[in-house]
Amino acid sequence: MIKLNFRPAAVAAAALAAVLALSACGGSTPASSTGSQENPYGLIQPGTIRVASLGDSKPYTFADAQGNFTGFDVELFKDVAHRAGVDNVVFTGQDFSGLLAAVANGQFDVGVAAIGITDKRKETVDFSEGYLAGYLTVITTKTSGIKDVNGLSGKRLGVVQGTLQEAYAVKNFTSANLVRFPDNNTAIAAVNSGTVDAHFLDYEAAKAYEKQHGLVSAADIPSFDAPAGFALAKGKTAFKDALNKGLAAAMDDGTWKKLYQKWFPGSPMPEQYLPKAEQKATPTPSK
User: Fold this and answer.
1) CA angle 95-100-104, nearest 5°?
2) What are the tens digits of pLDDT across the range 195-233?
3) CA angle at residue 160 from 154 to 162, to 5 degrees?
4) Contact present, 259 and 152 (Cβ < 8 Å)
5) Which of 178, 173, 276, 271 lies closest to 221, judged by CA?
6) DSSP helix/strand/coil, 273
7) 4, 123, 166, 273: least surrounded by Cβ within 10 Å?
């Protein structure tokens, strides 16, 4: 190994030159989280919101046949971003297990993927107000013998790593053997092949898999204690305020309701997100 010796003056000069060079490269470093007149929300690229999301989580966020992101969360976030004055929104698919870390370290401006707000996650990122609450479902084959959550004892139960379902299963399904997957598609393939006995996922996503693969629901569990929110790095106060203002407006004028009816037809509608004049008791999902 070659050892190089540097004089102190040379080192200082080189360091100063490096700092000046970086300062001159606009866009080479993330924008300040405090924002500026030209970039009030502290976005990585002024005028563009870079979103970390999921490409296989119907009907929340998913890529269509052309590779374009769509779904309830996608359409809602684009509406909210428009209300905040930003129309250029770029979605990128990520594994859920690393999504929040990618937002926290500045790789993305926000995470949008029906992300449940929990105290544990708040240690890593900040959240907007909640915009979605729903149910969790245990999905299995017709011949598995699993009829309810009690039937999970000793069974292999799939969960997507890093999700609310994983946290719930760890706490409540202690007699089940949890098998972690990177996404729902991989887990459902394991159910179909018999590698796992059941999979624990979101109620809405479960409905699509039931129809596609002839699977059945063994249990639908309320999950209103951890509503979904948009995740963003800590300290982005102006950005968070703008998202919350946009969300409130989308709920007040019925946009949220319209999108919910489009993407979740026939599903129970959480009353807290409806215009106040329309709020009523929230029903439970029917089989």
Assistant:
1) 135
2) 999 999 988 889 889 999 999 999 988 776 788 999 999
3) 110
4) no
5) 173
6) helix
7) 4
